[in-house]
Design goal:
- The complex is a heterodimer.
- Chain A is α+β, with helices and mostly antiparallel strands.
- Chain A is built from four helices and three strands; from the N terminus they run H-E-H-H-E-E-H.
- In chain A, strands 1-3-2 form a three-stranded antiparallel sheet.
- By secondary structure, chain B is an all-alpha fold.
- Chain B has a domain of 59 residues.
- The two termini of chain B are 38 Å apart.
- The chains are: A alpha+beta, B mainly alpha.
- The interface between A and B is medium-sized, with 21 and 24 residues.
């Protein structure tokens, strides 16, 4: 499946780049990016399908049920770096105030 | 627990139940997060948004951890089996009361089909009861492999055609029992038989199952 280059995907990838080696929870990513679960999970599913995201069930606190956790793979990190830097460059090229001519 | 939280849990359970096999793991992941969201209304918002997963219809990924799919409470299972058994029993009585051979044959076929479905449902439930706990990926893979081995053995024997025979037999019983609509129903039976045979031969051929076992073996050997 092909990855969609949406601003939301870039947002999720940028969030993963904040702590590259750590496993992340869905709710934490949702809170930090402001994306709803219905938007976030399809993105995570696509990333996992493209082998850019590792998933794992881990028990963080003893006695609580395991949570589904996510971490970018090596390919995922490479893709995330490329996507995020491209998005930043594009944002830098765009004028801050459109319509102002002089 | 507040009503809002209970509602959120009910919705998330429903999402897990009705998610497609390939999305089930993700639906479970979404559902698990609910327990970690402190605000009840935020939890409800999370699960309402998570219903989007239901739109993703995917096949089960080989080697992916899956929770026991037979999540219906025990009384529901027993009620269903009892209902199936009663229908089968009722057809047996019809068989005894039948006056001519078509009726007898129709009732006999129906009784056999309902009994078959009851037995198949109980066997499926017994097997799924032994599924390893969620999170034990390696055990899940071994469990899936065991199931695939069983399917492979079945697909190489006459047992592969049992569900097809039963479907055709069940459709035939209508033709034999309801004389007035026989011309129409005969067409339906032929169509159903054709459809069942095509479905049985295209789904899970020995070659496909063997490929799945090989993929699973690679994952088991990898261990991650």
């Amino acid at each position: 499946m092909k990855m969609r280059r949406s601003p939301q995907t870039t947002l999720v990838l940028a969030e993963f780049l904040q702590c590259k080696q750590e496993w992340r929870y869905g709710y934490d990513i949702s809170r930090n990016t402001g994306l709803k679960s219905g938007t976030l999970y399809p993105i995570l599913m696509r990333l996992a399908e493209n082998r850019m995201l590792d998933t794992s069930w881990q028990t963080a606190v003893a006695g609580t049920p395991p949570r589904h956790m996510y971490k970018l793979t090596r390919d995922g990190l490479r893709y995330a770096h490329a996507q995020v830097s491209e998005a930043r460059e594009q944002a830098a090229r765009e004028p801050a105030f459109e319509g102002v001519t002089s | 627990m507040t009503t809002v939280r209970k509602l959120a849990l009910k919705i998330s359970n429903a999402v897990v139940r009705f998610a497609s096999p390939g999305s089930k793991e993700w639906a479970q992941g979404l559902a698990r997060e609910v327990a970690f969201i402190e605000n009840d209304w935020s939890a409800l918002g999370w699960v309402i948004s998570s219903t989007r997963v239901l739109l993703d219809r995917r096949k089960e990924q080989i080697g992916a951890p899956s929770e026991n799919s037979s999540k219906w409470p025990r009384p529901v299972n027993w009620s269903v089996w009892l209902a199936l058994f009663m229908i089968s029993f009722n057809d047996c009585i019809d068989l005894l009361k039948a006056t001519y051979w078509q009726q007898r044959m129709g009732a006999g076929l129906a009784a056999f089909c309902w009994a078959y479905w009851t037995a198949a449902s109980i066997l499926k439930w017994r097997r799924e009861r032994n599924a390893p706990p969620l999170g034990d990926v390696q055990a899940t893979r071994l469990f899936q492999r065991e199931g695939l081995e069983r399917s492979l053995e079945r697909s190489r024997s006459i047992r592969r055609w049992f569900p097809t025979f039963v479907t055709v037999a069940f459709c035939s019983h209508f033709v034999l029992t309801y004389e007035s609509v026989r011309p129409v129903l005969t067409g339906v039976v032929i169509a159903a038989a054709f459809f069942a045979i095509v479905l049985a031969s295209s789904l899970n051929s020995p070659k496909q199952i063997q490929e799945q076992i090989e993929r699973l073996d690679t994952l088991i050997a990898g261990g991650s």
